[in-house]
Design goal:
Layout lengths: L2 H11 L1 H24 L5 H18 L3 H6 L4 H17 L1 H9 L4 H28 L6 H20 L1 H7 L6 H20 L8 H47 L10 E8 L7 E7 L4 E9 L3 H17 L7 H13 L7 E9 L4 E7 L4 E5 L4 E5 L2 E2 L13 E4 L4 E6 L15 H11 L5 H15 L10 E8 L1
Parallel strand pairs: 5-8
Antiparallel strand pairs: 1-11, 2-3, 3-4, 4-5, 5-9, 6-7, 6-10, 10-11
Helix pairs in contact: 2-3, 2-11, 3-5, 3-6, 3-11, 5-7, 6-7, 7-8, 8-9, 8-10, 10-11, 11-12, 12-13
């Protein structure tokens, strides 16, 4: 027979295996595409599902004589197909187990991990035996026993409501139960019938696996869509929380005689643990409060909201920084639940030409004096809020002069790191202040944020919440 006729005859004999194998490989590619497109939590099940489908499809395709014929009877190609066929025969359980690991809980997960470990050991022995002796089936019976044990256990867990509620993550799984029962019935019959000498058509195996695969794909997509909906709802709630948090911050700087104020607030995430507020008494006397809650995100933002309420309650003591700190610490300490808060409070009285400063474990107040070009770090710290509610807070008295500039900030200004792990640091902060004396407070804040962004690696997002209040005495 002519070679072309031989190839055509081989293709006709293997057409069912070629179609089913190609189908499962295509399903695998679709699963990989979905995982690549989504790139969010919960899509790893699609990767394992794709690997399972691909291994089953390759197991159908590689024994095909027609593929070897199409390769011009290449012996190396035939050897490659044989190795792939043996490897997929032994290792198909591994991605299958990982698929179900994404759907199970507790003891059942440990059981599946044990199956994976045992199957890998059997696969190593089986593939090694094939490479050394050429025998394909030396250890295949152990592989089938492991597959049957896993499948039977899964069917029992899915079929018994009390077990499924205990060991499955799915809220509903009727589709998966039906698919598993159909595949289980076919697989068990195939494993029993073959040793007894009954021939089971490959088409039956392919159809049974297709039913299970499509039921798993349905469940996986349902989980991914559910996760997407939850993430979308969380994103909406975080956006509302962000708007609410910005609403508790001052809408604008107070109109003050002889003072110009610029405030910058940049949260690292949608919501932040930084907070600032103004406590004005009149157009010559005002208090400036800056606070930083340990941690980030929603818990820190909730405590920052509490600071807003607490700050309103101490407005009557605005001229006494020690009392402001003491009362804020007393109010917050009973509600922090292990969280810590640093804070700084600066009171300025332009009529009396003086300022008073106190802090609770906060970065130093920075003062620039245009009269002599000096830059001083002013520290007057007591304990962080949340350490002890009865802590005392020292006060530093500061004389005022026209041209003085004060900086109140959180550690998000100085702690960002570059690619080498070096922090931006106080030195660079102070250098920028010295080199940009002529800029207004808002312009200087913008310049500083630009320098911080340039200091960090381009691929890295903001590392901490940033709050900066610049106060100019004019």
């Amino acid at each position: 027979m002519a070679p072309a006729n031989e190839i055509a005859s081989a293709f006709r004999g293997d057409i069912i295996d070629i179609i089913s194998g190609t189908f499962f490989v295509v399903i695998a590619l679709l699963a990989f595409a979905i995982a690549a497109i989504r790139r969010r939590g919960g899509v790893s099940i699609m990767v394992w599902l794709g690997l399972w489908s691909a291994s089953f499809g390759l197991n159908e395709l590689t024994p095909s004589a027609s593929l070897a014929k199409a390769a011009a009877l290449s012996l190396s190609f035939q050897a490659f197909c044989s190795i792939v066929n043996v490897a997929t025969s032994y290792l198909t359980i591994v991605p299958a187990a990982f698929v179900f690991l994404k759907l199970t809980l507790g003891t059942f997960r440990r059981y599946l991990r044990l199956l994976v470990a045992l199957d890998i050991a059997v696969a190593v022995a089986g593939i090694g035996s094939f490479l050394l002796t050429g025998s394909r089936h030396t250890f295949i019976v152990y592989n089938q026993l492991l597959a049957d044990a896993g499948l039977l256990t899964m069917i029992v867990v899915l079929s018994v409501p009390s077990l499924s509620r205990r060991f499955m993550v799915l809220g509903h799984h009727r589709v998966l139960t039906i698919g598993s029962l159909i595949f289980g019935a076919e697989a068990l019959w195939s494993n029993i019938a073959s040793p007894l000498g009954y021939e089971v058509p490959n088409l039956a195996n392919s159809l049974g696996f297709a039913v299970l695969l499509l039921s798993l794909a349905y469940v996986a997509l349902d989980m991914i869509i559910g996760n997407e909906r939850r993430l979308f709802a969380i994103d909406n709630e975080l956006e509302i929380a962000r708007q609410l948090q910005f609403s508790i911050l001052p809408a604008s700087a107070p109109e003050l005689r002889n003072l110009r104020v610029a405030a910058t607030y940049q949260p690292m995430t949608a919501v932040a643990g930084d907070f600032y507020d103004f406590l004005p008494i009149d157009d010559r006397r005002v208090g400036f409060l800056v606070a930083d809650v340990s941690g980030h995100g929603v818990p820190a933002a909730l405590i920052a909201s509490m600071i807003k309420v607490a700050a309103q309650s101490v407005n009557g003591f605005a001229s006494d920084p020690a009392e402001v700190m003491h009362r804020l610490g007393g109010i917050l300490s009973t509600h922090l639940r292990g969280q810590l808060v640093s804070a700084a409070y600066l009171w300025i009285d332009t009529a009396a030409h003086c300022a008073r400063y106190s802090a609770a474990g906060h970065p130093p107040l920075l003062r620039w004096r245009s009269t002599d070009g000096s830059l001083a770090r002013i520290e007057s710290n007591g304990l962080l809020f949340g350490v002890r509610s009865t802590a005392e807070y020292p006060v530093c008295d500061i004389p005022l002069a026209p041209g003085d500039r004060f900086f109140l900030c959180t550690d998000g200004v100085t702690e960002p790191e570059n690619a080498a792990g070096e922090p931006f640091g106080d030195h660079r902060f102070e250098h920028i202040v010295r080199q940009n004396q002529a800029l207004s407070g808002s312009e200087l804040s913008t310049r500083l944020l630009t320098e911080i962004r340039a200091w960090q690696p381009p691929s890295q997002s903001q590392q901490d919440d940033i709050t900066l209040v610049v106060i100019d005495v004019v």
